[in-house]
Amino acid sequence: MKRAVIYARFSTENQKDASIDDQFRVCQRIIDREGLELVARFEDRGISGGTDQRPGYQALLQAAQNKLFDIIVTEDVSRLWRSMSEFGTRSAQLDDWKIHLITATGDDTRHQGWGLVLNIKQAVAAHLRAEIGHKTRRGLEGRALAGAPTGGRCYGYAGPGAIDEAQAAAVRFLFETAAEGVSAIELARRINAQGVPAPRGGAWRDSSVKAILRNRRYLGEITYGAHEVRGSAQDSKKKIRTKRAEPLSVRQVPELAIVDQKLFDKVQKVRTASFARKDWLCEPFSTANQPAHN
What we know:
The protein is α/β, with parallel strands linked by helices. The protein has helices at about 20-35, 55-65, 75-80, 85-95, 110, 115-145, 165-180, 185-195, 205-215, 260-275; strands at about 5-10, 35-45, 70-75, 100-105, 155-160, 160-165, 220-225, 225-230, 240-245, 250. The strands form four sheets. It has a four-stranded parallel sheet, sandwiched between helices. Strand 5 (about 155-160) and strand 6 form a beta hairpin. Helix 8 crosses helix 9 (about 205-215). It starts with a strand and ends in an 18-residue tail after the last helix.
């Protein structure tokens, strides 16, 4: 009797854990129908099929390499792969290890091999992943143009339309002290000495200080789409960030300004001058079109 394993996966937190049980149930029917012996179940919850960094998937591959089973049963090819590059490498390995794939949607490499049909289905799955990403970005851009929040939090603000006065005081301290020529490293030391938590908790670093001081959000300028961020074709968990020539959306909201233009510009001049002395350990930049947190 051939040994079989089941692999189940769902992608996002919006999907339910019950989806795994549903996939197991469908796959168990195939195992019963084909007279196979179930030896293990593998699963990944809330992880995209566009990345190979899935614990259950990696455990499946390790078991396959150790020849602990003969057949993988899954609901659909896209449960295993949504990346053409990963599919190409792994399907070839599985073929070399003489491991077959059966899906609830009718694929069976015992009869078809790992050829044309699966390649076409993987191309479709990869296309759908790209299409979903495009529609998500399109929707976020529409929200930004309409003045609606697009997610994410910016230090100094309690929400999309409210200033957090305690955090705003820390922002003003950083700008006012930086305008005196104090380095980012020294600024981090001073604000840590005051016991002020960093934007992500814990201690301030010079990189956190630099991010604050170049952020035009504190002028009441809300920028969306200064960078294009897309998933790597090889691994959807890896992001490729490319600066756009112009942001997709820039809105002026003066009532949300924490510092004024004069102070902001003075800090940028100090930063540029300090760079020549290696005080800031970062590249100089202009005050135009700088990215802001949404």
